[in-house]
Hints:
single chain, 228 residues, alpha+beta
Amino acid sequence: MNQILITKDMPNNLEINLIYDTKKTFKRKIIIIQFILCIIVFSFTCGYSLYSYSNIKKRNKISNKLVENFSIISLYSDKTNSDYTASKLSLDSYTVPENVINVIGIIEIPKLNITYPIFSNVNDNLLKISVCKFYGPMPNENGNLCIAGHNYNNNTFFSKLNSLENNDKVYIYDLSSQKLEYTVYSKYEVDATNTECTNQNVQTKEITLITCNNLNDSKRIVVKARAD
């Protein structure tokens, strides 16, 4: 004879249903909380990405404006003044040291579809706006002109520098509006602390373009070109 023994300590059906409903409600709350957290994280990520993209576009716009102004300033500057070394442009729309930027030339790389002013010195603020002279002579003079630019992993500044190959062309405009063609002859990576690429022991007009490697913070991408 089969019997089911029921004692007073065993929960009845109502108690079992209450326990089940409580667990179900708890799980539902956990899911809701996780969903809300996901929305918050997603919103923050999207907002930060849009903010960063907006800043890059703003800086790129400033660079383009500088390129437009440079040709005008070059034409109307007093070239008879021996102390004249750079175009001075005042920027009210962006804060930089002393609110003055020295533009010493323009770099144009058709393959990358970029044209930027070259600043006379380098610091974090200037690198956010355009490419900068890192070391070497003035544009289109004998020596190794080293130019540094940020890699934002998009289509701006030196982000696509790694796609350049031997025989690709780079054009440099100096303060006299002279355009000189340079041909890429070497591309390689170096450690961030390796400055051998800035060596000035050259007899020709050369340029060295330098940017960071987003896949490896300890490496730098170097592209070298010489005047034809």
